[in-house]
Amino acid sequence: MSNTFSSPLAGRSTGDRLILGLAILLSLVMLLPVLWVIAMSLKDNAALMANPNSVFFPPYELTNYLNIFATSSVFRWIANSLIVSVSMTVGVLVLSSLAGYGFARLNFPGRDVLFVIVLFGLAVPEQAVVVARHQIFSLLKWHNTYQGLILPGLSSAFGVFLMTQFFRAIPKELDEAALLDNASRFRIFWKVLLPLTLPAQATLGIFTFLNAWNDYFWPLISATRKEMYTLTVGMASTQTNFAQSEGLGYLMAQAVFAGAPILIVYLFFQKYIVTAVSGAAQR
């Protein structure tokens, strides 16, 4: 009976084996900080203060994570982060897809100039417009509201650029064939072209969700009431002045707790990211 299971190294040359071994080694090196953070999050703060090397030895416990859940508002902060991140992701996908289709497929006066103006948005840091944005939102009384946290993130120059490039890569013969069948422009966009951009949308959605979930700068300015904190701002508000030295375990538990949803989202959509990146490389 032939062996149906083969080693990943079977049939590979010596060079391929060395490259694969190096890739595995580098992956382990990159994982070391993550494992370090997780191990510290499972240690008692007093034990870490007495002996930092105790992170390598048991016992390990969940006290730091239980202390996080003991914070009365933590679930409200999680809900706020989910509402903001999901709403921002959906909004960016809708607006970027429509704008990308318009720039890639429609001819209208000033299209190229407008696209260049959109690209300029990639070079403008958020800090450069935060004062004007703060004043506008103050006049509209949108601080400490969900729209105040969500709307600034809907203008994604990167999203428009990404979707424009993907729509341009789709053969225009598909549009012409659909037009011959009397399909409207919106029907062509919705039924024919949009499904073909699923890898790009998944990639853009993940990056948008990640940025929205980890955003600390704008929520810190806009959300001044405790019930409107996102998770990043809420976790920071629970730290003491000596958290860096006296509460390392609790600090690391906060990092793991806040980063876990991002890892879960990435694991679910990993294949779309790989497809999008490989497709972009081929182009």
Automatic annotation (TrEMBL):
Pfam families: BPD_transp_1 (PF00528). It comes from the Bacteria. The chain crosses the membrane at residues 18-39, 77-101, 113-134, 146-167, 188-210, 248-269. Residues 78-269 form the ABC transmembrane type-1 domain. It is a multi-pass membrane protein. Keywords: Cell membrane, Membrane, Sugar transport, Transmembrane, Transmembrane helix, Transport. It is found in: Cell membrane. InterPro entries: MetI-like (IPR000515), MetI-like_sf (IPR035906). SUPFAM superfamilies: MetI-like. Belongs to the binding-protein-dependent transport system permease family. This is Multiple sugar transport system permease protein. It comes from Rhizobium paknamense.
